[in-house]
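TODO from last week: model Na+/H+ antiporter subunit G.
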Amino acid sequence: MIDLAAAILVFLGAAMTVAAGVGVIRLPDVFTRMHAATKVGTLGSGLVMAGAALHFAEPGIIVRCVLIVFFLLLTAPIGAHMIGRASLRLGINPWTPRQKQDSKPDS
């Protein structure tokens, strides 16, 4: 039963990580892409680490998994903030739906 729960956690984490990758490819600008990469990527990595901790169930591995998740939760928002700040300083404007309509070629 524990192996099934660990497998489900790892599968959900992998699905979230794939969703983050799709978001990075599909979303229109750097601000929405960094949102997908950090929030969903952190959740996916956390679920994979939870599955690994549950599967191995050894104190050393559980501590490492908790530290990895803590490190991700600590660094991902800071990295996203710095990417967003650098983008704004470079003059990149956030995407709006109006920009999509304006970018259509005149026919």
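Done. The chain has one domain: 1-93.
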